[in-house]
Write a structure and sequence with these properties.
With about 425 residues, the protein is α+β, with helices and mostly antiparallel strands. The chain is built from 18 helices and ten strands. The protein has two domains: about 200 residues, no CATH class; about 180 residues, no CATH class. It comes from Zymomonas mobilis subsp. pomaceae (strain ATCC 29192 / DSM 22645 / JCM 10191 / CCUG 17912 / NBRC 13757 / NCIMB 11200 / NRRL B-4491 / Barker I).
Length: about 425
Amino acid sequence: MILTAYERMIARRYLLPGKEEAFIFLVASISLLAVTLGVAALIIVMSVMNGFRAELFDKIVGINGHAVVQGYNGQLINWRPILEEAKNTPGVVSAIPLIEQPLMASHEGRVEGVLLRGMEMGDIKGNTLIRSNIREGNLNALRQGSNSVIIGIRLAEQLGLHAGDDISLISPAGQTTPFGTVPRIVSYHIAAIFEIGVYDYDKAFVIMPMADAQTLLMMDNTIGIIEIRTTNADHVGQILSSLRARVANVGVLQDWRTMNASLFQALSVERVVMFWILALIILVAAFNILSSLIMLVRAKNRDIAILRTMGASRLSMLKIFMAVGLAIGGLGTLAGLILASIILYFRQPLVDAIQYFSGQDLWDPSIRIITQLPARVDPIEVLGIMALSLGSSFLFTLYPAWKAASTDPVEVLRYE
């Protein structure tokens, strides 16, 4: 929509009306503010939800892989052929053996439930999520046969532990006596403390070399799980379809969707619902633009009639009032984009400041799972929100612009 010089001049004057139209200017300002808040709220909420899902996915997949092969009885006895088959499957990046076993851990009278994870030393040190998030101690101090472990930071906080302290692991698989099975209690040296960023993992994981875990659990040379990573997490089902049939007689193959189905499905549903609920704010703002333009047309009825008698066409009137409405919507959209960018950039300091002044824990990691407020901006989604805002503004300017263009100057000026 190209405006001539005089159309641009009139549109600018109508955007900033005189004192007699102060109320119209107030309504237009409220409309602009509503568009700003609506666009900002939608971008912020969708970015936070995208970030939450992406962060949760990265953490879960980073520690659990895209899929696992687990024995029917909790153990894979003849596991090496299965491991080789998994590694040779097209689309598989890596396959590593694991042991996972729930145990109890104690220190100076405190007791917590933990999840023991046994891994090969190369796999522990090669895991980026663990290696890059050591908060205390040294990962190189973890060595096979040295009775050393690494633990999550939340578990360390619960038991009052630091790197260099000892932790006792209690295994129910102990010696059988005439009085029953005596649990095994073994003390381990804490080599390092890590923080993955997922509360449940940081509170539960105790990681040790594979051979030490087999000794503690008296598993000989067996393992519990084979963790698999593929080239594409979204197509993990198709990539591992052939492997699923080959391992069916010894274990079950589960991918990340199956293991976390309820969580990710809930996030997807909540994301869609939140989008449409917050989109209503933009629609309400567009209704405000409609009402302000209707009042502006009524207030400028005489001016429109004079312009028409001076030779202004109906198309010019249509373009002028559409430009006014689109300017309000466009400025509000731009301001909303800027506001959302600022809030997203300073999101964690804002949460910390609110928590400090209110005295409330707004982001309890034990409830929110993730330890910090995440955000990930999707440019395509932002463009869609901007298109929704501008499109709504355009649609709601059509009626008042048409009314202005339909003004009959003879009727308006008859009694002037």
